Amino acid sequence: MKFRGKIIDVACLNHFTRVITTISKLTKICVLRLTPDNLFFVLSGKVANGGVSMWCELSQANFFDEYQMEGVSSEDNEICLEVTPENLSRALKTVQNAKAVKFKLTKKHCPCLTIAAELPTLSSISRVVTHDVPVDVIPRRLWHEFKEPSMPDFDVSIYLPPLKTMKNVVDRMKNLSNFLVMEANLNGEMNLKIETDLVSVTTHFKDLGNPPWGDDASQDGGPSQSRDPEDMAQARVDIRKLQQFLMGQQVNPSKAMCNIVHERVVHLILLHEDVSLQYFIPAVA
């Protein structure tokens, strides 16, 4: 197994760092899957994660000036590593003004993702800063746990309001309740609601629009084919998990969408040119 990459362009380095920082806000630990064309950051929806799962996909060609990898074998040309995104994010933040940043899979006291940055200097002597980020190599037999999650057969798909606005609303609601109901319909309307013994609060958003796939993406002419546009699909979720998602956003997505499987799951999708991030929050009873 071999991996090495190099980022020279400062804008690409900054963008890559923002993506990693976003992921570090969503999870303490995740799997980095390297393939010849893409990098994937994956969190599988285990009970230990509170059922939350994540899938972030980056095209290597949009970030790396050089990228070489050899997987476990020619048939399984992939590398799967368990990483702590916070450690990666810290390392990258210290090298933002570097002339070039190299990434390499190395074996020190343990397997590491070594980040070496050539920093600008006033003299002719080059200055290189190196970070060794420990990783665990995931054996081939466990790879099946880290495949792309299938698109749920959702009842409603809707564009999200500005994430900053949504975050402000959720931050205030969190002071009142641990759970929040997200509901939306095919008329571009979405409500965020909390209900406790003492208080009931609802924030309404309208004219958000529905992604075109909302008309036919539910497989086999599923629920949304014949759904009344006014009908709300809803899911009650742990408010902290939604807040975590909204707090971490540094990707500045061009599109932010939400799919709701009624009383089952909230599927959030952020798209930004060369990055897609999916986040699944299971509903609670």
Folded structure, characterized:
With 285 residues, this protein is an alpha+beta fold. The chain has four helices and 18 strands. Strands 10-6-2-3-4-18-17-16-11 form a nine-stranded antiparallel sheet. β17 and β18 form a beta hairpin. α1 packs antiparallel against α2 and α3 runs antiparallel to α4. The chain is elongated, with a radius of gyration of 21 Å. About 3% of the residues have low confidence.
What distinguishing features does this structure have?
285 residues; alpha+beta; nine-stranded antiparallel β-sheet; five-stranded antiparallel β-sheet; 4 helices; elongated
Unreliable segments of 5+ consecutive residues: 216-223
Q: Radius of gyration, rounded?
A: 21 Å
Coarse morphology: elongated
Mean pLDDT: 90
Strand content is 35-45%
Share of helix, binned = 10-25%
